[in-house]
Amino acid sequence: xxRYRRVLLKLSGEALMGSAGYGIDPEILKGMADAVAEAxxxxxxxxxxxxxxxxxxxxxxxxxxxxxxxxxxxxxxxxMNALALGEALRARGVVAHIQSALPVGTAVPAFDRxxxxxxxxxxxxxxxxxxxxxxxFTTDTAASLRALEMRADIMLKATKVDGVYSADPxxxxxxxxxxxxxxxxVLQRRxxxxxxxxxxxxxxxxxPLRVFDMTSPGALARILAGAEEGTLxxxxxxxx
Length: 240
Hints:
With 240 residues, the protein is α/β, with parallel strands linked by helices. The protein contains nine helices and ten strands. It has a single domain (6-233), classed as Carbamate kinase, CATH 3.40.1160. Helices cover 36% and strands 18% of the residues. An eight-stranded mixed β-sheet has the order 3-4-2-1-5-9-10-8, with helices on both faces. Helix 5 links the parallel strand 3 and strand 4 (125-129). Helix 1 (26-39) crosses helix 4.
């Protein structure tokens, strides 16, 4: 039985490219879709996906561009990722809706909070594309914003490691994994979980955040069922 009624899942665009330099690895996309399909039954699951896998391929060209224009390219990259993920989910029988914060004609409906809430109440998946629709905001901040708008019980941040560490575990063998942290711990220790704006939004509205390893088979389904995996960040938590 699902523990949460509504959940916001933040997926990294970079994760979609696998070992390639950029683009979408079909096997990685399949794995993500399988994980969401396995876990989404009974839970209204909202997803925000980044665009780094596509934008990385053109980032050298954008190096000298105006920041607002470069961010627009990044937001459009998330639309492509959302379309790919949505199609992969539908192929698995999952009812998935895509909404974009940027107007993209008939390709993707515009963000509509009321409709999104209706879909989530039916236990369907909603994928939010194009970040906040504004430059200078990360997709992490967009994910926190959507978590608040969807009245999510929790926000999940999918990574390639099993939680938040005191240092990069790949570079520092003495790095310690935390089980629980407060928002202030994350900010004061500069742990790099998400940008400060994203963390501040969650802290202000007391939305818990769980950071976990999306590559661990069944991890998402276990968390939605109540498993204590990865690292939980919430107001007032004692550092463990």
